[in-house]
């Protein structure tokens, strides 16, 4: 018999394993299985498939179709793989799955023309969470309702509507009898119907319960990390309380259903380990096909031998450092080609999008980070007081849950044109001088010159300049479109869901500062006197570049304009059409964002010669010869390597399991509770992951379900040293959440094998 303390420990562990979901204003990609990175991906996939029905593999039909369409290289497939896959496509076996008591009650109880218990439970808890987050001053102050569990209990005991809706006369009495403390509730449940449950069975049960409200759990996990609260644990206890109520209700009112519940639960508890083992065995061949499918995608990559690389000794006139977002890959190539056409020596580089400046903007309500989600800001700038214009009012109205209705009612038919053409979203360029030119400070006061010099030195070391050109442009990126609750996710993931404008502005200002340059010389960093740094923003819907610096030379502007024009011409529309598409509130696919991301390359981008891969690769320039101890590579794996993993796995899961790990139909998205997340429609759980329209074009997937393929241009020893220092990345690699390759001097990819 399990002890209560052990049961509590298991519930807490499950609660702490939920990956956070950022609020909509800072919405960034997240790997939903981030906290399971220390376990083999195949085992996690089998476990969550049983507990929650989550799919981390495509269906057998998908792999069979890819095989029939020659999308998987024959040399990677064995006869046994083909035979077993064909058997799975023909058998269409339904894999076992844990059922919560609410689901068993729905199965055994005849509830004609009545709401299903599982649906009502999710709806009731979700609405309670929404109130809790919508009105924090009412429900989150010290006192009786200070906890989420207490808040839910108070509301449930006072609500007479549930009893009427569900036609159960004893429901209010059962709510009244529930323990006031969640730990006591666990004790009562353990004694009532979980006396014989093993640790493993309890873990399965807790994960099955939390998966009913996975979206809310993820949103509350974000809050827990910042407030040292236990709201996810309390959410799990609330879901468990409903199970206890249904168990008691069946015991009191329906003997036949109660006996069936007892038998069903006992069978699950006894067989759960064997069921998960069966799923893992069933999945074995599918993982082989997944690996072959992923390896086949690499065949489109072509690399030049290192000796033929044209990384020139001559310094380019224009050097442009781009965020490593996959959309910048297209622009980098277009820019270098524009340089060739115009006779301007041009070099592009890829670097982490926050440009090594972990910033946050201090605002009246809260700080807004402009840094990767796993990195705490170390520097701050103050935001100015903002006045609300008519246009900002309109924009806010169009982005509230009641959206168009409040907008029309408040502004009348005089705004009919904006309603039809769309209220344009504002592209964040950090153009307010009070922000872009303000004093940079740290938590303990104004940042010292020495600390800012160190910041610049580290950023330049990461960019690995051999020499400096006359014009160096730092290019962040942002997405400009309307009526998209998840628009922050199309901005810069390394900038906390904001645009890269502020980071580019701040670093370029620091690098142009005469005093900082003098100190850099003392540290061995010599920037020529005539070198100037400029900042710009790549708007990813239209591929237009917005200049953030003053007095940008015409030669540089012309170069970027030529690149933009070439990219726009190559798309299926004019610049005017793209701009209209970006500003239209009804446009479900303003851009494809980071769809089809699958490769992260640390090396010299000039070695990647294949043109058909444009728009799929994160290209971070790296020269291993300048990093003999692998210290820089360790930093790269630990920062952009993890950001890329989060992005890749969010897209991956939104394709393999769009029902549970995606966010459904973007047309039906509604913002919830101070923009903590979205509903699809007007209820149910919060949705997580990407909308269907972000990964599918209506006829086929635009994003291929491929685990991130990391390619490093370095020798084996350097890679191993870097892996040893990059703990989290190494865990992902060892447990096969990512694939890792080494690019050798001959332009061949050699797979790095886990220990």
Secondary-structure blueprint of this entry?
Elements: H1 4-16, H2 41-52, H3 60-68, H4 79-91, H5 101-108, H6 117-134, H7 136-139, H8 148-158, H9 161-166, H10 171-177, H11 182-193, H12 199-211, H13 214-227, H14 231-253, H15 255-297, E1 318-323, H16 326-342, E2 346-351, E3 359-362, E4 367-370, E5 379-382, H17 390-397, H18 403-411, H19 416-421, H20 433-436, E6 441-442, E7 445-446, H21 449-463, E8 471-478, H22 501-511, H23 514-522, E9 532-539, E10 544-547, H24 554-570, H25 575-583, E11 599-603, E12 617-621, H26 631-638, H27 640-656, H28 658-661, E13 669-672, E14 677-680, E15 709-712, H29 716-725, H30 727-734, E16 739-743, E17 749-751
Parallel strand pairs: 1-2, 1-8, 3-5, 8-9, 11-12, 11-15, 15-16
Antiparallel strand pairs: 3-4, 6-7, 9-10, 13-14, 16-17
Helix pairs in contact: 1-12, 1-14, 2-12, 2-15, 3-4, 5-15, 6-8, 8-10, 8-14, 11-14, 12-15, 13-14, 14-15, 16-24, 21-23, 26-29
List keywords for this structure.
755 residues; alpha/beta; 5-stranded mixed β-sheet; 47% helix; 10% strand; globular
Q: What does it look like?
A:
With 755 residues, this protein is of the alpha/beta class. It contains 30 helices and 17 strands. The longest helix is centred in the middle third of the chain and has 43 residues, at 255-297. The chain is 47% helix and 10% strand.
């Amino acid at each position: 018999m399990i002890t209560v303390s052990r049961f509590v420990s298991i519930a807490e562990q499950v609660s702490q394993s939920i990956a956070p979901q950022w609020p909509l204003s800072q919405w960034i990609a997240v790997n939903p299985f981030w906290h399971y990175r220390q376990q083999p991906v195949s085992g996690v996939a089998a476990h969550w498939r049983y507990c929650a029905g989550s799919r981390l593999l495509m269906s057998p039909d998908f792999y069979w179709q890819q095989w029939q369409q020659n999308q998987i290289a024959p040399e990677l497939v064995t006869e046994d793989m083909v035979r077993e896959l064909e058997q799975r496509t023909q058998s269409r076996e339904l894999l076992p799955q844990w059922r919560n008591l609410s689901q068993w009650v729905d199965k055994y109880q005849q509830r004609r023309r009545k709401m299903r218990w599982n649906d009502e439970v999710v709806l009731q808890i979700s609405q309670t969470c929404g109130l809790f987050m919508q009105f924090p001053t009412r429900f989150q102050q010290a006192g009786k309702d200070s906890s989420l569990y207490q808040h839910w209990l108070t509301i449930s005991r006072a609500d007479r509507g549930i009893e009427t809706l569900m036609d159960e006369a004893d429901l209010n009495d059962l709510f009244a009898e529930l323990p006031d403390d969640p730990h006591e509730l666990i004790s009562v449940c353990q004694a009532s119907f979980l006396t014989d449950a093993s640790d493993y069975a309890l873990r399965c049960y807790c994960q099955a319960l939390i998966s009913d409200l996975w979206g809310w759990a993820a949103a509350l996990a974000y809050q827990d990390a910042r407030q040292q609260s236990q709201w996810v644990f309390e959410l799990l206890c609330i879901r468990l309380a409903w199970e206890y109520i249904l168990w008691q209700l069946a015991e009191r009112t329906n003997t036949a259903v109660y006996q069936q519940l007892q038998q069903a639960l006992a069978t699950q508890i006894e067989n759960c380990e064997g069921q998960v083992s069966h799923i893992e065995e069933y999945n074995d061949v599918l993982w082989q096909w997944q690996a072959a499918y992923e390896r086949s995608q690499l065949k489109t990559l072509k690399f030049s031998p290192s000796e033929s690389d044209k990384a020139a000794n001559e310094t380019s006139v224009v050097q442009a450092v781009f965020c490593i977002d996959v959309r910048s890959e297209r622009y980098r190539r277009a820019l270098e080609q524009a340089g060739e056409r115009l006779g301007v020596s041009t070099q592009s580089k890829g670097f982490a999008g926050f440009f090594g400046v972990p910033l946050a903007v201090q605002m009246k309500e809260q700080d807004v980070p402009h840094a990767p989600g796993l990195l705490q800001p170390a520097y701050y700038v103050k935001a100015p007081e903002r006045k609300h214009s008519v246009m900002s009012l309109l924009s806010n109205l169009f982005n509230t849950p009641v959206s168009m209705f409040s907008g029309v009612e408040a502004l009348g038919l005089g705004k009919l044109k904006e309603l039809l053409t769309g209220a344009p979203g504002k592209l964040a360029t950090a153009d307010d001088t009070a922000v872009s030119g303000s004093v940079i400070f740290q938590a303990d006061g104004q940042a010292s010159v020495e600390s800012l010099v160190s910041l610049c030195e580290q950023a330049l070391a990461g960019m690995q300049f051999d020499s400096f050109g006359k014009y160096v442009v730092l290019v962040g990126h942002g997405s400009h479109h309307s009526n998209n609750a998840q628009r922050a996710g199309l901005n810069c993931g390394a900038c906390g869901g904001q645009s890269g404008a502020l980071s580019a502005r701040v670093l370029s200002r620091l690098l142009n500062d005469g005093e900082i340059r003098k100190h850099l010389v003392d540290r061995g960093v010599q920037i020529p006197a005539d070198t100037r740094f400029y900042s710009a923003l790549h708007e990813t819907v239209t591929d237009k570049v917005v200049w953030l610096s003053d007095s940008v030379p015409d030669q540089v502007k012309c170069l970027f304009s030529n690149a933009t024009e070439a990219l726009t011409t190559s798309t299926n529309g004019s610049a005017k059409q793209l701009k209209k598409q970006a500003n239209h509130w009804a446009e479900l696919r303003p851009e494809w964002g980071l769809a089809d991301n699958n490769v992260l390359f640390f090396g010299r981008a000039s070695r990647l010669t294949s043109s058909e891969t444009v728009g799929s690769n994160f290209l971070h320039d790296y020269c291993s010869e300048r990093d003999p101890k692998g210290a820089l590579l360790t930093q790269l794996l630990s920062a952009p390597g993890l950001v890329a993993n989060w992005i890749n796995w969010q897209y991956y899961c939104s394709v393999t399991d769009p029902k549970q790990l995606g966010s459904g139909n973007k047309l039906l998205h509604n913002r919830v509770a101070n923009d903590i997340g979205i509903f699809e429609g007007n209820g149910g759980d919060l949705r997580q992951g990407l909308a269907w329209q972000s990964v599918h074009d209506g006829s086929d997937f635009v994003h291929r379900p491929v685990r991130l393929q990391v390619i490093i241009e370095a020798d084996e020893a350097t890679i191993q040293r870097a892996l040893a220092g990059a703990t989290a990345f190494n865990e992902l690699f060892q447990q096969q959440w990512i694939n890792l390759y080494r690019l050798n001097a001959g332009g061949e990819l050699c797979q790095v094998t886990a220990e």
